[in-house]
Amino acid sequence: xxxxxxxxxxxAYNVEKYIxxxxxxxxxxxxxxxxxxxxxxxxxxxxxxxxxxxxxQDKRIKVVFxxxxxxxxxxxxNSAIKYIKGDxxxxxxxxxxxxxxxxxxxxxxxxxxxxxLCYSGGYLIDENENEIxxxxxxxxxxYIFKQMLFxxxxxxQSVLIKRDVFRKFNEDITIGEDYNLFMEIVLNNKVCNIKKxxxxxxxxxxxxxxxxxxxxxxxxxxxxxxxxxxxxxxxxYFIGYVISWLxxxxxxxxx
Length: 255
Known about the structure:
- Helix content is about 40%, strand content about 20%.
- The chain is of the alpha/beta class.
- Strands 1, 2, 3, 4, 5, 6, 7, 8 and 9 form a nine-stranded mixed beta sheet that branches.
- It is globular.
């Protein structure tokens, strides 16, 4: 298998406690043909110095400093797009981690296939990297949009996609920009998953605030409306659409 370049987008904001470990989890990948684009969204802690140091040490790391805080993950991530050179794109938040074989395992399945997106399972960890849970994909490979409406199971940190289905993140969405992109890909393409734990997703006090849950609910509702306007999904996925809508409304109203 020839080593195609993987472009990794990492947004960063005030993550001096975690970002070194996140970057090192990329450096320690068994698949080594990658570029890491770190976008700092005007951090006011030591994040800037840390990422500058990594950039000096490894030519595969590119650091982008925003001049103004974007206030939304979509804006920060979109700032990386013009620097992307790879045929495959992955995403890693600056407080999460990859296991060493993450990219190699996914490239082995995604490359030279008709799948456009690959995701995996992973571990849930706390602020000190203690395991507090785990998750694994349950769906078969192929067209799984209907199943995703009933229960969405893609973790952003685990995703690897082909460049030809990538587009800018929707900046009208406060939280849920990844759901917006991935659900459109899943609707129109065959996707695959790996039933292995290849990422570590960190849960801490800033992860699930009430305001973020409400923003995520709004983002889900936005995506459902948008997909229906573009593709008339109500026609073919009525029950799943209604279930997704009701679940989003429940979190919006009661949290």
